[in-house]
Amino acid sequence: MEYVTLYSKYLIKKESGLISLTLMPLSWFLILSYSPLTYAEQPTEYRMKVAFLYNFAAYTEWPDWPDHNLNLCIYDEDPFREHLQHLQQKKVNHLEIIIRHTRNIDDLINCQMIFITQSAIGNLDDIINLLNGKSILTVSDTPGAAQKGTVLNMTVKEGKITFEANIARAKKSGLKLSSQLLRFASEVYQ
Amino acid sequence: MPIPQKLHSLILHCFAKAGLLFGLSSIQILPVFATANLEQLSLEQLMNINIVGASKYEQKQQQVAAAVSVITRKDIRIYGWRTLGEALASLPGIHTTYDYQYEYLGTRGLGLPGDFNTRVLVTINGNRINDATYDQGPTGRDFPLDIDLIERIEFIPGPGSAVYGQNAMLGVVNIITRKGADIKGAEISTSYQTAEIMPQERVTLGKQFDNGTDALISFSGLQSRGADHFFEFGDTGISGVAHRLDGENVKQMFARASHGPISFDFIYGNRRKEDPTGISFSDPLVAGQFQRDRRLNTQIQYNNNFSNDTLNVLGRLFLGQYRYENPLFYGGEKTLTTGPSDWHGLELRLLSTAITNHKLMLGVEYQNNTHIKQAFQNFDNPDENVAIKSSVVRVGVYAQDEWSITDSLSVTAGLRYDHNDWIGSRLSPRGAIIWQATPKTTLKALYGRAHRSPNSFERDYHDGVSQVANPGLHSESIDTAELVTDYRPLSDLNLRATVYAWDMYNLITLGIDPFSGFSQYQSTSKKVLARGAEFSLDKTWYWGARFRGSYGFQSAEQQDSHLPNSPYHLGKINISTPIPLIAGLRAGYELQYYSKRKTLDGSNTDSYVLSNLNLVTDVPRIKGLEASLSFYNLFNENYLHPAADTNWQNAFLQPGRTVRLRLDYHF
Questions:
Q1: How many CB pairs under 8 A join A and B?
Q2: A40, B491: Cβ pair inside 8 Å?
Q3: Which end of chain B has the least Cβ crowding within 10 Å, N or C?
Q4: What values do phi and psi take at A13, rounded to 5?
Q5: Cβ-nearest to B573 among A25, A46, A54
C-alpha cells in the first residue's frame, strides 16, 4: 500500500479537505459490509466456482471410496472465503464433504480432491509429481493448468464459468469422470 | 453581429475519456435465485449463469495499457442513466456540463465552456461518431444511439491517437451495442418524466436465427415539452421565464445484422432542442430558435481469425453523414446556420500472436471527408449569406506491439503516422510498461502523445463580418504521462490509484486576426498544464451488492491561470443493492460531489452534491414486465454550470428534481 500513502501525501499537500472525502466512501463501505441479505441476481465468480466444485465431486468416481468423509483441500491462499460454507454438511455419494485448508504440500496426499489456487500455481509441477498415480481429483482455475496436468480446470468465458478436463490424467489417477460431466467440458485433453 | 452557435468561440475544449477493450459480454436478465441453493442446480443450469465481477475482465483490464473503466448494460439499468454523459459522469475524472443545448464532457480538468468534446473520440462498434464539420463527440440526447441498446461502454482515459488518430487526445469512449441474441424476441419500453413533461418510448426486435444470422432493429423517440426556466440576458437588461422554449424531440433508429465474420450497423439519430438561452447573442425569449443535429453512421465490418487463431483480421467500410441546423433571430431578422458533412472510408487491422510473447497490431485507416459545407443565411438580408465548401482526405497508418517479456512484465509500444493536406504529417507515439508486481498488484507506467488536426469550422469558416478563416492553422498536441496502480487484495475488491500529468501545446483557440481585427482560430503559444490524481474502489458482495467510489483531484492551468469550468475535486459514489423485502427489487444510488468551477467572468459557481436514486423491479405475476422509478437530483440541489462566451449568461442553473416512471416489457 505504499503507493496510496505516496499519493495521499501529494494530495494532502495540494489540498487539505481531501481526507474527509476519502473517508466518505470508507464509511459507506463499512455500513454496507454487514448487511445480511440473501438475494442476488448474479452470483460472484467464486460463489459459482463453489457450486462447480460440488458438481465435480458428484460426477467423479474414486476407485477406493474413503470411509466417511470426502476431504476437499484448498491448497494455498483461499479465494472462495465465505462461499465454501455452502458445501458444509453437504454430501456426495453418502460422503460428507470436509473442507481443509493447507499450505503444506505434504498434507495433500490425504485429500480426495484438491483445489490448487492461483497463488500456488507456480508449484503445479511439484504437486502433480507428488500426486502421480494417487487417486486424487485435482481442480484449478488458472489458464493452461489442464494441459499441465490438473484433471479439471475452470475458466471464465463471456461472463460464464466453463471448464476443461484432462482425462489422460484422470485415468492415470484411477478416477472415472462421468460422461455427464465430460459432455459439458469446453475442452477434453485425451 | 451574429455568431452562429457552433462557432463556439472558445479556447480549449473538453473531452472525455473512454473506456476500454474487452469487458464482460452479454449480461442477460436472469431469473432471481437465492445463491444459497446453487449446489442444487445442474451443471447445465450452472453453465448458463452469468457472474458478476468476473476475474477475466478485471484481469484483462489490468493488462491493458490504460486506466480503463467499463460500464455495462446492467449498470445502465440499475442506475437509470438516460444519456451517455450521465453514465460517464459516474467515472473518476469526469465532470459534465449542460447549457440547455448540449451535454459536454469534462475530462481530467479540461472542460472549456463551449467546447464540443472535440478532444475525445466517441465510437460505436469501432465506428467514429465525431462528425467532419465540428468534430463534436456527442454525449447527450444528440448521441444517435439509444442508451438502452448499449451492451458496454469502455472508457480509455489518456491519449489514444497512437491507435485511433484524430480526436483521441484526452480519451476514447468505445460503445459496444447489444445484439439480436441479447434481445431474443421483443422489448417495448415506455416512460414518463416529470418536470420536462416527457414521454419516451422504444421498440426493439432481435433474434439469432438457427443459421447463425443475428439481427436487431430498434426505434426510439422522446417528446419533451421542457420546463420553464428563468434566464437573464446580459447587457440587454432583459430577463424572464422562458415559457415553452425548452422542448426537445428525438427520433432514433438502430439496425444491426451479422452472419459469421460479417456484421453491419446502421445508426440514425435526429434530435431537435429548442433554445431558451438566446445562444450566440440572438434575440432573447423568442420561439423558433433551436439546435437540430442529425447523424447517420453506418458500417460493414469483417472480423475473422486465421492461422490457428494467431491472426485476427478486421476490415471495415464506413460511411457517415452529419446535418446541423440552427435558426436564430437577430433584431427580428431570421437567420439559419447549417454545417452538413459527408464522409466515408475504410480501415484494415491485423492482429497477430504468431510470435511467442508478442501481440503485434498493424493497421491502416483512410477517411475521405468529401463534402463539408458551412453556411449562414439571413433570410431578411441575403447580403450576409455565406457558404463555404471544403473537403479533406485523412490517412493514418499504425503499429503496436505488446511484448510479454516475462510472466509478470510486459511492454507496449505503438506509433501512428497521420497525414492530411491541411496539416501535413504527424507522428503519435505511445508506450507502456506493465508490471504485475504481485499476483494482486499491477503497476503501469504510461506515456503518449496525441494530435488533433483543426476541424473545418476552425480552419475554413469566415463570414466577412466577425470571423476570418485560417488556412495555415496547424494541429495541436498533448503529451501525457501516467502511473497506475491496480490492487486487488480480494477477488471481489479492486483498488486503483492513478497520478497523471498532461501538457497541451499549440492549442487551437479563438484569437484576433491582426490584419482584419476579426476573430480567428489560431494556435496559441500558451501551454495548458494539468496535474491530477484519482483513487477508486470497487467492491462486490456475494449477496449481490456493489459499491464503486472514486475521488479525483485535478488542476489544469494556462499561464498560471486556472482553467474555467474545471473543478479541483470530484467525488463519486455508486451503490447498487438488492432490497430484501421484495424479490427482484434493486436500488441504485449515486452521489456525486463537484467542487467550485471558475466562470468566464472570473467568479466561481458553488460546489455541489448531486444525488440520483433508481429503483427497478420485476413486476410480480407478469412475466417479462419490469418497472422502474427514478429520482434525478433527488434532493433538488440548486447548482450552476459555467456558460460559454457565446452565451448571454455567465452560468446556467441546472434542472431540479425530476422523477421518471418506466415500464419495460420483454416477450
A1: 187
A2: no
A3: C
A4: -60, -40
A5: A25
CB A139, CB A168: distance < 8 Å: no
Q: How far is CA A128 from CA A170, B35, B397, in A?
A: 12, 33, 48
Closest C-alpha to B324, from B104, B493, B132, B193: B132
A59 touching B (Cβ < 8 Å): yes
**Residues paired with B76 in a beta bridge:** none
A46 CB within 8 Å of a chain B CB: yes
Rounded Cα distance, B37 and A81, in Å: 17
Strand duo B386-404 + B341-352: pairing: unpaired
Q: What is the CA radius of gyration of chain A?
A: 21
3-state per-residue secondary structure call for A79-129? CCHHHHHHHCCCEECCEEEEEEEECCHHHHHHCCEEEECHHHHHHHHHHHH
B263: left (phi over 0), alpha (psi -120 to 50) or beta: beta
Return d(Cα B525, Cα B520) in angstroms, integer.
15
Quick one: three-class SS letters along B383-394?
A: HHCEEEEEEEEE
The alpha carbon of residue A56 is apart from the nearest alpha carbon of chain B, in Å, by 9
Yes or no, beta carbons of B52 and A82 under 8 Å apart: no
Task: Report DSSP letters for B140-203, one per residue.
Answer: STTSSS-GGGEEEEEEEES--HHHH-TTTTSEEEEEEE--HHHH-EEEEEEEEETTTTEEEEEE
As a CATH number, domain B35-666 is: 2.40.170.20
Task: Report domain extents, chain B.
Answer: 35-666
Over range B212-219, report the average pLDDT.
Answer: 95
Domain ranges within chain A, ordered by starting residue? 2-32, 45-189
CATH 3.30.2010 holds for A45-189 = no
C-alpha cell at A51: 457450486
- pLDDT 10s digits, B366-422: 999 999 999 999 999 998 899 999 999 999 999 999 898 988 899 999 999 999 999
Question: Whole-prediction pTM value?
Answer: 0.75
Structure confidence at residue B37 (pLDDT): 75
